[in-house]
Amino acid sequence: MKMLINVAETVVADALRGMAAAHPELMVDIENRVIVRRDAPVAGKVGLVSGGGSGHEPLHGGFVGPGMLDAACPGEVFTSPVPDQMVRAAAAVDSGKGVLFIVKNYTGDVLNFDMAAELAEDEGVQIAKVLVNDDVAVTDSLYTAGRRGTGATLFVEKIASAAAEEGAPLDRVAALARQVNESSRSFGVALSACTTPAKGGPTFDLPAGELELGVGIHGEPGRERRAMMTSHEIADFAVDAVLEELRTDNPVLVLVNGMGATPLLELYGFAAEVHRVLGEREVVVAHTLVGNYVTSLDMAGASVTLCRVDEELLRLWNAPVRTAGLRWGC
Amino acid sequence: MPSSVSSSETAGEPALDAAFFHRWLTAAAAAISREATRLTDLDSAIGDADHGSNMQRGFTAVTEALEKEPPGPPGAVLILAGRQLISKVGGASGPLYGTLLRRAGKALGDAEQVTVRQLADALRTGVDAVAQLGGAAPGDKTMLDALLPALDALATDGGSFAAASEAADKGALATVPMLARKGRASYLGERSIGHQDPGATSSALLFAALAEVASS
Questions:
Q1: Contacts of residue A299, Cβ cutoff 8 Å, sequence gap at least 6
Q2: Is the pLDDT of residue A216 over 90?
Q3: Is B3-215 in CATH node 1.25.40.340?
Q4: Farthest-apart Cα atoms in chain B, separation
Q5: How far is B216 from chain A (nearest CA, A)?
Q6: Of residues A101, A191, A189, A186, the one with CA closest to residue A148
Q7: Domain A184-316, what fold?
Q8: Marked catalytic residue, from A23, A218, A232, A275
Q9: Interface ipTM
């Protein structure tokens, strides 16, 4: 598999050098792997820190900036960051109002953020944590690691951050983040496996002519494989899977998210199908975002995330944001 | 097993010094490095294809740190190694393996030499901490399924590192028909059956390294 890299060992550091070059408004600590908005800590504001394995760009580093995250901690490809990174990030963004860790529900992320929270609190930073677990493809039971965190991460980060910008205290920002997570559900499909630089080949075998339903964002296989379906059929399947677990009379935010290798042409066509199904199910759409936001390296495919909103959440969603990956209203 | 270790074990006298622990971790790093591709391949079947490279990065850091700092007592060597794994590996394996070694190191205290039995007890303390941190039970298709049989083998009368290594290998193999209930493999449900757990496999490598240095 051909890749636009030098060597696999330096892909994360190389990408961080590129972020530093392209985004002077960010402080990119390449050695310690922390991306911080340059004006941090913002006086009187709760700090928001997220992080996770690399390979999901623009998540999380691309969401650092006014109106969204204060800092992000990129791990190795598909590997959670280490506690040192989050401790450093928390110290850099804490204005004295405390810091919220936004953690996608994967065993590694949870363990490393938990260790970081303990260490940061030892250093006098007040920490709250919110777990994102929106993926309906995984049964949430005692017998699994629980639902995975995927597309809803973007909604949680955006909405909670908007509240923090308005001066909301840590417990309020954390409560809002949990509310957004509880109001969001996702479902993803893969048309091809992804290629990790370390492996140099596909992370699983997906025969031509088949798709993987309920795929995660780390190339981990989904739960069911079927003969290739049309965009129309995939939208029916994905939206119904989400609505099964997210009953709503309220309007929804829609994220039609590309996994990395699916062209925008296809994503917009898929977005049309998603809107069609939502219309048929009498679900009102408040806002739709189409693009590659929570990716899985070079995987082809897409995910659908719905977030049930009230007026407050919608107002916070629409608040100005200025980051590399998401930008409006300013 | 060398006569020096087995005889002092029966005599209950201190036998293992810091140099032994240094050699163990160096051998473990070499074994992880040698098997990195296999670990990553196992992980790509039921996980996310990074176990080999992550463990390799972590154990490389361990050997570098041990070479830089003069090894203190055995406990300090394990604590240093555990800290390196927590700081360098990431994922679930960093905190889990790091906690295993750190807690075992703490349990050994600052004794200059420890018996095989003391090491076995310390590792038990470490593995208990791993079980608590990860929330896994035996049979969940995790590293515990290699670690626990190895410790049991070590704890029996006449138990040796070689027997522990053999038990760990068997334990790792026994994860093949198991249904994963923890970690990323659990997302697969029934489809996790038929694959050997990468974490159990790397755990077995640690015991293989222990047997290797004890017999050299």
A1: A190, A192, A193, A194, A215, A219, A259, A260, A261
A2: no
A3: yes
A4: 49
A5: 33
A6: A186
A7: Hypothetical Protein Tm841; Chain: A;domain 3 (3.30.1180)
A8: A218
A9: 0.72
